[in-house]
Amino acid sequence: MFDDVEDLLYEIDQLISNDKIAEAKSLLYEVLQSHPDYGKAHNYLGWIFHYKMIDYEKAERHYKLALKYAAKYPPTYVNYSYFLIDKGKYKEMLSFGLDTLEKENIDKGTIYNQIAKAYELRDDLIDAYANYKNAKTYSLAHNFIEEVNASIHRVQNKMNTFQKIKIFFK
After folding, report:
1. Which tens digit of pLDDT belongs to each residue from 63-81?
2. Distance of CA 109 to CAs 9, 22, 25, 49, 131, Å?
3. CATH number at residue 47
């Protein structure tokens, strides 16, 4: 149908945008039949299984294949970080996030935000606060910065007096 897999990926992206998930999934499987190591296709399938089909086992498998085969494709790192938080794998998110920050062309604001969420959900409010501050530093999008500010405020409200004093003097 298409000579260039990237053109097909564009069509798949359009199908997903138009909520034609079954068609997009079918085309992704076609891509993987001829190009089983095409990491971007695995990322798209991971996203579909994660958000649209709520099949976390398949989502994780495809995200990991995407990370393996397309290690320089930044969206997979963001998608997988959301997956780890959604699955409650906070310790794994912390390790993954710190490793991801060392890579090139990564959305550091989003990764720091996901690290902060992992800390917050583990009730480590001091580290959550610090990482939300980092997320804000590495972000440019106004709506995202407002979201991070709300997270910072939420964490401060959860803190006891000693924790508030500790971040004030840092």
Report:
1. 999 999 999 999 999 999 9
2. 26, 32, 30, 25, 9
3. 1.25.40
